[in-house]
Predict the 3D structure of the following.
Amino acid sequence: MSIRMTALCAALMMAALCGGARADDFAIDSPSVDAGVLQWEMRAAQSRDGDPAADGDRVVTTSLSYGVGPWLQLSLTGQWERPPAETPSLEQVAPAALLRLTRPGEAWVDLGLSVEYGIAAHKGDPDTVSVGFLAEKGIGPLTTTLNLCFSRDVGANSESAIFGTYALDLRYDWAEAFSPGLQFFGDLGKAARPFRHLDRHTHYAGPVATGSVALGEGLSLEYEAGYLFGLTRRSPDGAWKAMLSVSMAL
C-alpha cells in the first residue's frame, strides 16, 4: 500500500474512533500551497451552552491534502457529527481543490480560491457545492487571514438559495512553536441579502493559539487550540476548538 493510501486510511480510522459532530466549521484556510507536501489534519469542536438542546454539539473532520505544485492543492475531507444525546455518524465526504492566485509576497495581499463538493453520506440529504475566497496579509509579526465562503445545496431536497459564511484570523507570529491570536467566525445568511439580520445568525470570537514543531527532516507537527464565545442570541454560549496535523515532504 502506498504512503498516501496508508495515511488516508489512518486518518479516516482515527476520525471514526473519535466519533464527532457539528458545533460549527471553525476552520480557516490560508491561500498558501506547499508543493510536494502531504498533510493529514484532524479538527474537533464542541459547543457549550446552558440549554441542553445546544450543549455538547460536536463535529470532527479529518482530511488528507497534497500540494500537486506551487499553485494547486488537492484534498479529501470526511466529517462526522454528533448532536446532543445522539449517536455520531458520518455526514459528508468532500473532495476539494485550493488554487493559489498570486505569487507569495509579490502582490499587496496573497489570494487564493477553494472549491469543494460535499457528498452527503445519508440518502435523501442534498450534496453541497462551496466556493471560498481566501486572502492573507502579513505586516511585521502580524498575519491576517480572511475567508469568505459561499455554498449551495444540490441534488435531492436542496434549497435554491446561496448562503455565505466568514472566518477571520488575526495572528501574532511570536514564535514558531507558539503564536497567539484572535479568530472570528459567522454566518452571513443568504448571499442575495448579505449582512441582513446578522443578529439572527451564529457569530463567534475568541483567543486561539497555534504553532508547529519539526519532528525530523521533512516532517512537522502543527497544532491549534482555542475557545470561542458566542456573540448573538442564536449562538451557543461558546465552543472549544482543536486541530492537529502532520505534514510530510515527499
Residues 3-249 form a domain with the Porin fold (CATH 2.40.160.40). The chain has one helix and twelve strands.
